[in-house]
Amino acid sequence: MAMIRTEFPQNSGNSSDQQRGFSAIEMLITLALLTIVLAVVVKGIIELQARNFNENGKVDAVQETRDFIDQMARDIHGSGYPPPAVVTQASNSGCNDPTIRAKTNIACGIISFSTTSVQYEADLDGSGTVSVVYLSLVPPTGSTNCPCILQRGTVTKAQAIAGTAPAYFTTVNGILNSGDGTGNDGSGAPTYALSMNGPGSYASYAKADVFNGYDSSAGLITAACDWTTAPNCTQIKSLQITANVAPPYYDPVTKMFPVYSITSRARINF
User: Fold this and answer.
1) Within 13 Å and on the Cβ side, how many CA atoms surround 169?
2) What is the CA radius of gyration of the chain?
3) Long-range contacts made by residues 134-143, C-beta under 8 angstroms, separation at least 24?
4) CB atoms < 10 A from the CB of 126, how many?
5) How far apart are CA 245 and CA 258, in angstroms?
6) In the chain, at which residue ranges do the beta strands (DSSP E only) sit?
7) Can you name the residues that pair with 264 across neighbouring β-strands?
8) What gap in Å lies between CA 11 and CA 18, rounded to an integer?
9) Containing structural domain, residue 109
10) Do 123 and 131 contact (CB within 8 A), yes or no?
11) 8, 53, 66, 134: most buried, per Cβ within 10 A?
């Protein structure tokens, strides 16, 4: 029987025939490519997150402002109720009489007005309990510049007469306008300076009045009034609020803050 002999090749020891690993240069090139890919991915995530913050900020700013203005409109519609007319007075002076004005069950409408603050009395829930509502525009704590804070606080009329300060529990941040009433057409000056971070000019938004009053003939009222002035605030028959509001985050592309202008006017039920 023939024998079959199989021979296996011997390892010649030549390094060119052996399997090699990655060289240092190849590893560096691989790491560089991986770093570039990761950088692109991380940049995209950061931009997406910034865009998300920006969009959420827009929605929140507009919604908070709209809620605030809607609340003011509801208050104004309830101001003056119960109306002074239900009080029997020989002189028929109503709230012009300090004695009547001091009654805790009488709402006397707007009792103080300026372009940056308003106080008015209203039966807010129809229960017969009269409240005093305080609306004011103030700079942030520790600052004298806008963007400012629009805030609303209430106390009962009995508490107001007793000297209780209101608790401000409804606020809107990012208000740019603080007009001083000298130029509602935009030719006036803001009450507070405006300081915004980032490029762009926002000066045109700052001049509008936050609050404006109108008389029975729809004539504009910007002069401040209260119960000590003549004529007092009974001349104001409707109240307008204007809010130029900027969200807390700027646009990630333009680096500018978008500004939204919301205006509403409510007639006093008085």
Assistant:
1) 7
2) 34
3) 134/166, 134/168, 135/72, 135/211, 135/241, 137/175, 137/178, 137/191, 137/192, 137/210, 139/192
4) 8
5) 8
6) 109-113, 117-122, 131-138, 145-146, 148-156, 167-175, 193-194, 211-214, 220-221, 225-226, 238-245, 260-267
7) 241
8) 9
9) 43-267
10) yes
11) 134
* Cβ atoms 121, 109 nearer than 8 A: yes
Degrees (nearest 5) of the Cα angle 72, 74, 77? Answer: 110
The structural domain count of the chain equals: 1
d(CA 111, CA 267): 15
| pTM, to two decimals | 0.76
The angle at the Cα of 180, spanning 228 to 217, to the nearest 5 degrees, equals 65
Residue 232 carries which DSSP code?
-
- Is 77 exposed, middle or buried (CB count within 10 Å of its CB: 0-12, 13-18, 19+)? middle
Alpha-carbon distance 136 to 99, whole Å? 27
How far is Cα 162 from Cα 160, in angstroms, rounded to an integer?
Answer: 5
In a domain, 137, yes or no: yes
pLDDT over 70, % of the chain: 80
Determine the residue type at 54: N
Q: Is residue 179 part of a domain?
A: yes
In a domain, 217, yes or no: yes
Look at residue 33 and tell me if it is in a domain.
no
| Model confidence pLDDT, tens digit, residues 127-156 | 778 899 999 999 999 999 999 999 999 999
- Close Cβ partners of 235 (under 8 Å, ≥ 6 residues apart): 213, 215, 221, 225
* 35-93 per-position pLDDT tens digit: 888 888 887 777 777 666 666 667 777 888 888 888 888 888 777 656 554 444 444 45
